């Protein structure tokens, strides 16, 4: 882990594929129950830039509370190991299917880091204690 300050805000960065990344946690606009959205920003010099989406929203697929489908189509299967190793949650063993892709469901509510990074993101976006 690496802590940096950008524009007066503290960011706790994690290593992913040899890069320093910051997980962005929010919700998708569409889907029942405010579906979890997760993406990564990567550190480039002294600022963070968009790296990619970790989750994929499949509103037509049933998912459990606190769960979302992981985009292994664009990130590969190792992203699930990284999420578990960094305590963002656990695999459920269920899948959502869209087109020719089968996306694993991931339970973010089972991970302490999910809550920690959600709180950091909420604080950065002025949503804390609302």
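^ Assign residues to that structure.
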């Amino acid at each position: 882990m690496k802590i940096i300050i950008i524009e007066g805000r503290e960011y706790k960065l994690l290593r992913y594929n040899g890069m320093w990344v910051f997980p962005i946690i929010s919700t998708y606009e569409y889907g029942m129950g405010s579906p979890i959205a997760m993406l990564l920003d990567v550190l480039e010099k002294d600022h963070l830039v968009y790296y990619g989406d970790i989750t994929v929203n499949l509103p037509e697929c049933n998912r459990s509370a606190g769960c979302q489908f992981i985009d292994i189509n664009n990130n590969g299967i190792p992203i699930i190991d990284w999420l578990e190793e960094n305590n963002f949650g656990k695999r459920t063993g269920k899948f959502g299917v869209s087109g020719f892709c089968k996306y694993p469901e991931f339970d973010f509510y089972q991970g302490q880091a999910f809550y920690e990074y959600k709180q950091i993101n909420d604080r950065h976006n002025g949503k804390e204690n609302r």
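The first helix runs from residue 72 to 75.
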